Amino acid sequence: MSERGRPNKKTKHDDQKMKKIQNEEALYSDDDTGDHDGIYFEGEGGAVEETDFSKLELKADHANRPLWACGGGRIFLETFSPLYKQASDFLIAIAEPVCRPESMHEYNLTPHSLYAAVSVGLETEAIISVLNKLSKTKLPEDMISFIYASTANYGKVKLVLKKNRYFIESPFPEVLKKLLQDGVINGARFSSEPYCGADGFTVGKTSGELEAGHGELLNEAESAAAAEEKETHSFEIDPAQVENVKQRCLSKDLNYPMLEEYDFRNDNVNPDLDMELKPHAQPRPYQEKSLSKMFGNGRARSGIIVLPCGAGKSLVGVSAAARIKKSCLCLATNAVSVDQWAFQFKLWSTIRDDQICRFTSDSKEAFRGNAVVVVTTYNMIAFGGKRSEESEKIIEEIRNREWGLLLMDEVHVVPANMFRKVISITKSHCKLGLTATLVREDEKITDLNFLIGPKLYEANWLDLVRGGFIANVQCAEVWCPMTKEFFAKYLQKDNSKKKQALYVMNPNKFRACEFLIRFHEEQRGDKIIVFADNLFALTEYAMKLRKPMFYGATSHVERTKILEAFKTSKNLNTIFLSKVGDNSIDIPEANVIIQISSHAGSRRQEAQRLGRILRAKGKLEDRMAGGKEEYNAFFYSLVSTDTQEMYYSTKRQQFLIDQGYSFKVITSLPPPDAGSSLSYSTQQEQLSLLTKVLNAGDDLVGLEQLEEDTDGMALQNDRRSKRSMSAMSGADGNVYKEYNSGRHKSSAQQSKKPKHPIFKTRFVS
Amino acid sequence: MVNAIKGVFISCDIPMAQFIVNMNNGLAPSQRFIIHVLDTTHLFVQPQVEQMIRAAIAEFRDQNSYEKPT
Fold it and tell me: Is A593:A635 a contact under the CB 8 Å cutoff?
């Protein structure tokens, strides 16, 4: 007996441990005991090496300084320091924000951020001395040399657009010569037609001359510099190669980052556009700041401005256009936002109706006058197929024009190849990209650095919340345990395709959702949007709760009707949306979001969805810190515990966490006493729901695919091509794709040989 | 006559119990380890499988938790 007793005790002890381990799933569980901490530190042992900053020398008066400048370009900023505001302004100019929670911000020095700094007019010495002044520690050697190396060559080479041709310009011919030694740049060069200076520049050294008179040219350059003459040397490059050339010039290769500035005030060639900002358009402080980054020295420079959704990106865009006062091409993602942009232009500026035209598949307004604002979509410009005669004319017009400003909305969504096409078609002096979420799952985001330009400004979300410019959102993750039956099915291997449907349709989740809707509708009178990516779940939830819904296939008319009713009617307070609602649907009334299913681990989707409720609500004084309502918007993400959803959910939150948001975990929804007031209270109901889920076809429980959703496709490693016939018919399996992409060498070779020219257009098109 | 069987008593939440049951069902009949499913949150299993169950649960949990790449 004694033998039985012992193991029993032991198991009980182990059992407690096991329970404890499960508790650890609560990311920050409070009941962590001493020995647990021990394990934690042991585990961290490896990482300590890289983050050991104990060697850094602390200055005597470090308490008064706000920064920690550490090795590897990392900088930490204490937000509670009295110098916080100045220091953060400075840091945002020279470094990229990595993570900005409440009391400690992390920044990273990158070559791109330093180019941006230099281009705004900061000098290398100034950067180092200010950084040194603000830092608690002595600046590490590697940081100083890094700053020198990154900024030394900036501005020596310029990319200019003249009469629809691109030139690389530099006062230092030896620099040009060095550039030309690079294969890519030399290849991009138009060697056939040496450009001869027309407007006062002494230019036009072909490569041959450069090669021949090396010493002579050097002397010439020196004397030119001494005489302060404006002597510039340049050569023309192929417009199609501009992007490659820019990329080559970056720090990784040649380290001569090209300056792109547009001196619009002295541009007499392009006609002026008569538009001013209306007096009531008063940019907020952060909008002003972002514009000052763009127009720092009286010239316009290309780049990206990052502002959270609802913070007034369009005013920034319109202001930029109004300042440049030249023809402006504004690109949006879809027809709805084209209308919104056209409206914004008319709202904020004095532009006349005949100076602005929309170009979409539905409305093709012809150009009038010399200087215009054209609002269109990326698709319209990049469209590769045959166009109607009418739109062909307009495209030709766009192609032939020199645009003062290329304004690009939601730059993060546009796939790189479409971007390249747009940029190769349109010739613009200055490009401004606007976005809220500069993240992509396919890591193409760095491409934007040479496609558009450096990030000029990124707003701090929490500062905007504190200033009352955007809503103060309470984010919560609601943990819904799986029911026994659903989890059993979830674990079975043969249900792998239905896993998503099973954890989304988890009855506990449904009940939590129902509870939240009821609570917010009845107790607070809120307007609620429920997001579900999974169409099966979307329909089931909406039908069961008797709420309207719409998704990709819903017609424009019906959408407008539902949205209109949602905005105006007192009886309709909840709508269900699929991921069509993620971007650019403007529903300022909504202030609660419940997310029941989401697209894998897309950080952007999470941030964009949050953006739907960020537009500031209520009275300003209530919203300010210490106002009546601490939170006036709510973002719930319902997650079934112990499933893949936990993984995705944490991943998705990373972007918002980096912006300083924190997610509260709620584990007790619905409250246990809710009982039969909510649906699926009996096991019988739950079981019939389970059968329904299991019987639904695989195609039904899958994800909705939208054409423009390339980011999501990157997550799934599955891309749809508009061109292939099989994709149109929906028969585009992975097998077909692999065959097409030539990943199987043998089959690819086979496929190449027997192809008859007649079929070429069909398959390759 | 009372028969005593040596084993490990497991108490856990509903999904984990299902996980262990599912693990058990995936094995060949001779290797199955559950002696008794007592109720939805309690199981009685053979003593030698304890470590295996722990390892399986740890792995399962790792799959479902995201760690930020550094």
Answer: yes
| Residue A51 token pair | 């983050």
Q: Is residue B40 part of a domain?
A: yes
Q: Which of A7, A47, A601 sits opposite B6 (nearest CB)?
A: A7
Give A-chain residues touching B35 at CB under 8 angstroms.
none
CB A504 within 8 A of CB A515: no
Q: How many C-beta neighbours within 10 Å does residue A599 have? A: 23
Between residues B58 and A44, which one has the greater pLDDT? B58
Chain center to CA of A318: 20
Domain count, chain B: 1
Q: Please answer yes or no on whether A642 and B65 come within 8 Å at the CB atom.
A: no
Which of A9, A15, A16, A24 to probe by mutation at the B interface, max B CB count within 10 Å?
A15
| Domain that includes residue B37, residue range | 8-63
Q: Would you give the DSSP letter of residue A349?
A: B
Instruction: Give residues with Cβ within 8 angstroms of A381, minimum separation 6.
Output: A331, A395, A398, A421, A422, A425, A426
Q: What is the CA radius of gyration of chain B?
A: 14
Question: What are the backbone dihedrals phi and psi of residue A530, each rounded to the nearest 5 degrees, phi first?
Answer: -110, 125
**Residues of A engaging B, defined by a Cβ cutoff of 8 Å:** 3-4, 7-8, 11-12, 14-15, 18-19, 21-22, 25, 47, 481-484, 487-488, 491-493, 601, 641-651, 654
Residue B16 is assigned to a structural domain of this protein: yes
A155 closest CA partner among A170, A142, A141 = A170
State the ipTM, two decimals: 0.90
Q: What angle, 0 to 180 degrees and rounded to 10, lies between the N-to-C axes of helices A484-491 and B14-25?
A: 40
Q: Look-up: residue for tokens 């993750």?
A: A477
Distance between CA atoms of A424 and A426, rounded to whole angstroms? 6
Q: Rounded distance, CA A578 to CA A550, Å?
A: 7
The residues pairing with A349 across neighbouring beta strands, listed in sequence order, are A277
Could you give all domains of chain A from N- to C-terminal order, each with its CATH number?
62-151 (no CATH), 157-256 (no CATH), 285-459 (3.40.50.300), 478-701 (3.40.50.300), 720-763 (no CATH)
Q: Which residue of B has its CA nearest to A14?
A: B10
Cα(A317)–Cα(A341) distance, rounded to whole angstroms? 9
| Residue at B54 is within a domain | yes
Average pLDDT estimate for B13-23: 89
For residue A184, count other CB atoms closer than 10 A to its CB: 16
pLDDT at B44: 92
- Please name the residue that has the structure tokens 């119990």: B17
Q: Where are the alpha helices (DSSP H) in A597-643?
A: 603-611, 620-623
> What does DSSP assign to residue A523?
I
- The pLDDT, as a whole number, for residue A227 is 35
Q: What is the pLDDT of residue A283?
A: 84
For the record, the structure tokens of A329 come out as: 């091409």
- Calpha distance A221→A232 (Å, rounded): 9
CB A120 within 8 A of CB A454: no
Positions in chain A whose pLDDT score sits under 50: 1-48, 192-230, 623-626, 707-752, 764-765
Residues of chain A contacting B8 with CB distance shorter than 8 Å: 7, 11, 14
What residues of chain B lie within 8 A of the CB of A491, using their CB? 18-19, 22
Does B2 fall in a domain? no
Separation of CA A567 from chain center: 28
For residue B15, give the nearest of A8, A15, A482 by CB distance: A482
As beta bridge partners, residue A528 has: A574, A592
Q: Which is nearest to A115 in space by CA: A52, A157, A74?
A: A157
Whether residue A591 contacts residue A634, with contact meaning beta carbons closer than 8 Å, is answered with: yes
Of A667, A624, A661, A296, give the one whose Cα is nearest residue A461: A661
How far is it, in rounded angstroms, from Cα A356 to Cα A618? Answer: 33
Alpha-carbon gap: B15 to the closest alpha carbon of chain A (Å): 6
CATH number, residue B35: 3.30.70.1220
